[in-house]
Design a protein that fits this description.
This protein is an alpha+beta fold. The chain is 27% helix and 42% strand. The protein has a seven-stranded antiparallel β-sheet. Helix 1 crosses helix 2. The radius of gyration is 14 Å and the shape is globular. The N and C termini lie far apart (38 Å). This is START-like domain-containing protein.
Length: 128
Amino acid sequence: MEEKVKFEMEFPIHVSPSLLYQYISTPSGMSEWYADNVNSRGEFFTFIWEGSEEKAKLLGKKSGERIKFRWMADEGTDYFFELRIQVDEITKDVSLMITDYAEEDEVDEGKMLWENMVSELKQILGSA
């Protein structure tokens, strides 16, 4: 298996951190922008896109702040994806920080995918 490389992205979002957290941490919230449907059973989440499904294990979350998953296909690796809310202490600006991994030749594609999904999230939140 080819080594994956870590990449991080920052998306300013003009919305309250508590509302944003609902959209990044709950199956119903994630179904609005991340996948066609999201189900969870305990620490396992199933993400469904146009008939295909991927399972991920919840690695951890901190209420109001972040959520972290590992795809079951990456089990036994250090790979994960994390959605984290960052609030600037001075300006109170809210950003969604994304950490993910992709194979080296797929990083640009991975970033574009996140840009499209976060763009949809911003529209839903009225933050576009």
